[in-house]
Predict the 3D structure of the following.
Amino acid sequence: MPNLFDPLSLGTLSLPNRIVMAPMTRSRSTADGVPGELIATYYAQRASAGLLISEGTVPSAMGKGYVRIPGIYTPEQVAGWKLVTEAVHAAGGRIFCQIMHCGRIAHPHLLPGRAQAVAPSAVTPNVQTWTDDLGMLPLEAPRALETQEIAGIIEEYRQATANAFAAGFDGVELHAASGYLPMQFLSSSTNLRTDQYGGSVENRIRFVLEALAAMISVAGPEKVAIKISPEMPFNDLTDANPQETYTTLVKAISGLGLAYLHVAQTIPEPNYHALLRPLFAGPYFAGAGLTNESATALLTKGQADAAVFGVAFIANPDLPSRFAANAPLSAPDPSTFYTPGAKGYTDYLPK
Ligand SMILES: Cc1cc2nc3c(=O)[nH]c(=O)nc-3n(C[C@H](O)[C@H](O)[C@H](O)COP(=O)(O)O)c2cc1C
């Protein structure tokens, strides 16, 4: 069985190790969602990861859910991301772009023309969000998407994928986790639709399948990946039968030839890696709450091909070499996770 320091092939891409940096929103872009040199430095510092997955990046202005997060739908954003991918490649790394549409997890204050957020159904999340000028605000009722509007959102994922490749990314990851738009379609508490996108599990997984198909149409399957987080309660949603939902979804995408399936195990039970790994034919990335030891154990048990680390990468840019040396890890400062500037971002140095 492989260990964390063995190489891994993802389609045409060769990862030198199996230690992957998780997608993490850090809110260092401009108000218009343009990433710059500071963000390029941050990712390049972490280029010794087998693979970097970018922070959630929005495919349209209506997909935005947080202050200062990046987009990939304007020429300025694409040019900004080019700085990032060039810096990562110059440092010997590889980077996927995580495409995130927040759906109902968006306050009108962050949306164009104070628009109502869009969602599968008009179910208001019991969630508050930060705004730079008004502080914390409770989210408001979203508007249910009309059936004929959904093709337009799927098209946003296709265009965002094309833009990501124009910006030099090595691949794209569909963010179908953490309670954002695709997971809102998957979950029965947020999807009350009676059209072909709601009701049965086959209908609730349709949005994700169509988004993946659109992304594959421009990138080929081996450069497209997906992240899911079964039963994650974050962002106030639940599913009546999550094991059925996620086993059906994973069986449906298993044969597509995707770059990888990324599963965040955010609850103690059931063990979704044990449940889903055998159902997926391609590379399987396990994440959330892992340590050097627990990740090694997952690889040894055959429950993952690579391990994804989030918080540990924030304060340890050289995480693979720290793991290799069994060196102690630095602790990050959560008060600077989402604040502008270099503090708590690019000032954690390698040991
Ligand atoms: C500051 C921060 C921002 C995050 N932003 C994202 C994001 O944009 N997209 C995403 O899929 N997950 C996001 N996550 C979740 C991580 O990808 C990961 O699943 C989570 O941190 C658990 O892994 P860990 O225990 O190794 O940190 C974020 C986590 C943190 C700590």
About this structure: The longest helix spans residues 150-166.
